[in-house]
Design goal:
By secondary structure, the chain is an alpha+beta fold. It is 30% helix and 38% strand.
Length: 149
């Protein structure tokens, strides 16, 4: 049985700056934390075949994806000395320039926070079944191919 409660990760639409700020603000009373690291994934307005991406429509096998996110959380708490961790990913349409992934880790020291955040993001990109349909300005679309970096 896992040590931590399984948490909901998916947010409908973009992750707002206010949501991110509120999440960070809630940690100011936790005085055992010495470092936070945050990763924000943002939708790019890539040019593909002479068309500009205006949004990505994210979908997932939600139950399977939530299980994978939980496995990643549990592994991160085992691998790194973290105080807390939050992961949020968008489902649905997110416009270019908006945030689609928010990873927030806290620990007593910065190196642990840096290392954990990077590891978590790479695990998400490699192992979580989330799919993105890139939507162009002419309303045509193509399935997004994840890049390694």
């Amino acid at each position: 049985m896992s040590e931590h409660k399984k948490k909901k990760v998916f947010v409908i639409g973009a992750i707002t700056p206010q949501f991110i700020a509120d999440s960070i603000a809630k940690h100011s009373s936790k005085t055992n934390i010495g470092a936070h690291d945050v990763f924000l994934g943002q939708v790019r307005a890539d040019e593909i075949n002479r068309k500009m991406v205006q949004a990505i429509d994210y979908s997932a096998y939600e139950e399977m994806a939530e299980d994978k996110f939980h496995e990643i959380r549990e592994a991160a708490f085992t691998k790194f000395d973290l105080t807390c961790m939050h992961i949020y990913h968008s489902i649905g349409k997110v416009k270019a320039g908006e945030i689609c992934l928010f990873v927030f880790v806290s620990s007593a020291h910065r190196k642990m926070a840096f290392d954990a955040c990077r590891w978590i993001v790479e695990e998400i990109k490699s192992n979580v079944p989330i799919f993105g349909k890139e939507i162009f300005e002419d309303d045509t679309h193509t399935w997004k191919k994840n890049s390694p970096s």
